[in-house]
């Protein structure tokens, strides 16, 4: 009865979803692509394929990038597999297209009505469904269970906040989590949260993001541009709304910290010449952030105007660089000496610091890192990240770090050691997924 009421609510919400997509599509045209897919309607028949179809759902950009290493590991074990990728966001779908080989498939995640989910499964006929990190939908889980199609949650994470929200909706959430075939959390803390909800936790297999290899060419390009600039660069990485304004207001009155070193005057001068770089988390905010920078009285130079030669230095140094491009975080981490961790200076949980460490860029993070709690603690213990109480303290610490060559070099070395120590999740997850799929196929053969 409870799921029936939920199903009715989701069915009634379909016109609202279409309206939301059209509004979002006015700024991001990708949301207007193939809207009928959201409701389980597909215009093209599937080409024949002999191998298994492995369905991987990566809702947004971050999950899709993390899943790339898992896709590679799965192809090594299942060379004849057909990959079916689904997404919820336009940036996720655009990034996912890079993972496709001839014969692979891509579609939007079906809206969680009974009809859309059934049509999706009938059309694509996957042998297993792999949900990445956090995506759980009650009807999807129930219908996959009815069809005896295994559905698993890989590289799973669940913050205390998300756990509290799930417990408030326990009447709906508990059957959904319990209906999964397997859950492989990133950390022991995540495992405890999933156990609380009755999920079938099989093993803690780690975080896929550690296995991702940043684009070495992008890192090298960023470092070359920094050398050309001739001054230290501090970035706020994946900044969220409110953090850019707070940073700009701090910079209006910023003065170099007092560093107890020889050559104090030279050090203070270098710190005062820091180039500040802002890279917003969401691309739809690029224009608004550029306007905000100018409204606060700063000049701005945008990555989208640099081309392949890097920032234009002939006209003098702009106050702020703005990273308004997609798929270039490795370039920005190469460009920066130190990164302030976006999302951690407001109660938003923090963004992923693992990529920064893999690029050799030390991180200064605020108090709010519950989205990546264990990774943040481990990075801090390793010396790859430093924690501060607020953004003002973060700006001051970053300014200290960029002019202390010994300390900065130690932090960069710690980044490499931290990244290397936690690799291997992709292979472990791929083996576990294939085991569940093969066990399901064997079970169907026996019962058939």
Automatic annotation (TrEMBL):
The active site is at 63 (proton acceptor). It comes from Rhodoferax fermentans. Keywords: Cell membrane, Lipopolysaccharide biosynthesis, Membrane, Transferase. Involved in lipopolysaccharide (LPS) biosynthesis. Catalyzes the transfer of 3-deoxy-D-manno-octulosonate (Kdo) residue(s) from CMP-Kdo to lipid IV(A), the tetraacyldisaccharide-1,4'-bisphosphate precursor of lipid A. Its main location: membrane. Coiled coil: none annotated. Residues 34-212 form the 3-deoxy-D-manno-octulosonic-acid transferase N-terminal domain. One of its GO terms (biological process) is lipopolysaccharide core region biosynthetic process. The keyword Coiled coil does not apply. InterPro entries: Glycos_transf_N, Glycos_transf_N_sf, Kdotransferase. This is 3-deoxy-D-manno-octulosonic acid transferase. Its EC number is 2.4.99.12.
């Amino acid at each position: 009865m409870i799921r029936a009421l939920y199903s009715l609510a989701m069915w009634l919400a379909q016109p609202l979803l279409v309206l939301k997509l059209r509004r979002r599509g006015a700024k991001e045209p990708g949301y207007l692509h193939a809207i009928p897919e959201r409701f389980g309607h597909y215009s093209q028949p599937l080409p024949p394929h002999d191998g298994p179809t492995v369905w991987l759902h990566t809702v947004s950009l971050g999950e899709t990038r993390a899943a790339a290493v898992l896709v590679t590991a799965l192809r090594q074990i299942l060379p004849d597999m057909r990959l079916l990728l689904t997404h919820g966001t336009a940036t996720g779908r655009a990034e996912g297209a890079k993972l496709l080989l001839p014969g692979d498939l891509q579609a939007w995640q079906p809206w969680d009505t009974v009809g859309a989910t059934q049509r999706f499964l009938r059309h694509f006929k996957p042998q297993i469904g792999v949900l990445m990190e956090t995506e759980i939908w009650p009807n999807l889980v129930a219908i996959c269970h009815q069809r005896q199609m295994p559905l698993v949650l890989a590289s799973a994470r669940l913050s205390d906040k998300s756990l509290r929200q799930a417990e408030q909706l326990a009447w709906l959430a508990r059957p959904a989590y319990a209906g999964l075939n397997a859950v492989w959390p990133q950390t022991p803390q995540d495992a405890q949260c999933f156990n609380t909800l009755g999920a079938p936790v099989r093993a803690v297999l780690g975080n896929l993001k550690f296995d991702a290899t940043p684009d070495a060419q992008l890192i090298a390009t960023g470092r070359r541009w920094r050398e050309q600039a001739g001054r230290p660069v501090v970035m706020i990485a994946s900044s969220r709304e409110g953090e850019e304004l707070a940073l700009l207001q701090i910079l209006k009155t910023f003065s170099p910290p007092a560093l107890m070193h020889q050559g104090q005057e030279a050090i203070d001068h270098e710190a005062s010449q820091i180039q500040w770089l802002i890279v917003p988390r969401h691309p739809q905010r690029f224009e608004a952030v550029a306007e905000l920078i100018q409204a606060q009285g700063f000049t701005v130079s945008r990555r989208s105007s640099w081309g392949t030669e890097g920032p234009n230095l002939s006209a003098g140094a702009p106050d702020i660089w703005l990273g308004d491009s997609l798929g270039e975080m490795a370039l920005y981490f190469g460009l920066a000496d130190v990164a302030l961790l976006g999302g951690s200076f407001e109660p938003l949980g923090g963004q992923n610091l693992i990529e920064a460490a893999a690029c050799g860029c030390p991180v200064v993070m605020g108090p709010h890192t519950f989205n990546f709690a264990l990774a943040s603690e481990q990075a801090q213990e390793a010396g790859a990240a430093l924690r501060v109480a607020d953004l003002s303290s973060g700006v001051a610490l970053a300014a200290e770090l960029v002019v202390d060559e010994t300390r900065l070099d130690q932090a960069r070395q710690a980044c490499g050691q931290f990244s290397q120590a936690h690799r291997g999740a992709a292979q472990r997850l791929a083996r576990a997924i294939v085991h569940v799929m093969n066990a399901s196929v064997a079970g169907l053969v026996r019962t058939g």
